[in-house]
Amino acid sequence: MVTDSLAEMLIRFRAIEFGDFTLASGAKSPYYVDVKTAVTHPELLSAVAETIASSQDFDVVAGVAVGGVPLCVATALAKKKPFAIIRASEKSHGKKDVVIGNVKDREVLLVEDVTTSGGSALYGINALRAAGARVDRVVTVVDREQGAEAMLASHGVRIIPLVRLSELLHK
Fold first, then answer.
1. CATH classification at residue 123
2. Pairing with 130, which of 31, 49, 84, 98 sits 20 to 30 Å away (CA)?
3. What is the percent of the chain where pLDDT is above 70?
């Protein structure tokens, strides 16, 4: 589901930067994909949400904090469906729920800003499944093409990238 206009918008809103970066995994990279900052622009956030909402069916859309939250909220509004937020870690007070929102016995679509190894997406999938959700797909705005697809597939999850990193690098 790649759209040239979405890739072009990601570039225009500086979702990819070049330099010397250390990734969350500790690996070094000559580029950094920053969808979190790029989607603070309403035009891009709306385009991403409309793309996801028009191409996917689901009962609930979910995102892992922080990057997935604006994506799931915008997609929920575009599709007029409920959303759920997955905390980055468990709370030690209050209700202590990792998943905020009703996902039990519902088909849930997980959205991610960027996938690299797939670890964050798998964390979200596992949290949703533990809460009783049916979830087998992840839509990512940008897939860095560094193992997420194979790793998630080994857990019965299909990744659906809106844009692949190789497309951004060749624009």
1. 3.40.50.2020
2. 49
3. 92
Contact 35, 67 (CB under 8 A): yes
How many C-beta atoms surround the C-beta of residue 9 within 10 A? 19
Count of Cβ atoms closer than 10 Å to residue 116 Cβ: 22
Those residues whose C-beta lies under 8 Å from the C-beta of residue 154, and which sit 6 or more positions away, are none
Locate 1 and state its tokens. 């589901």
30-70 tens-digit pLDDT: 999 999 999 999 999 999 999 999 999 999 999 999 999 99
Instruction: Report yes or no: 56 and 115 within 8 Å, Cβ to Cβ.
Output: no
Question: Could you give the angle at the alpha carbon of 133 between the alpha carbons of 130 and 135, nearest 5°?
Answer: 105
Q: Could you tell me if residue 94 is left (phi over 0), alpha (psi between -120 and 50 degrees) or otherwise beta? A: left
Q: Specify whether the backbone of 47 is left (phi greater than 0), alpha (psi in -120 to 50) or beta.
A: alpha
Quote the number of domains for the chain. Answer: 1
Interatomic CA distance for residues 8 and 11, integer angstroms: 5
pTM for the model stands at: 0.92
- Residue 94 inside a domain? The answer is yes
Q: In terms of residues, how long is the chain?
A: 171
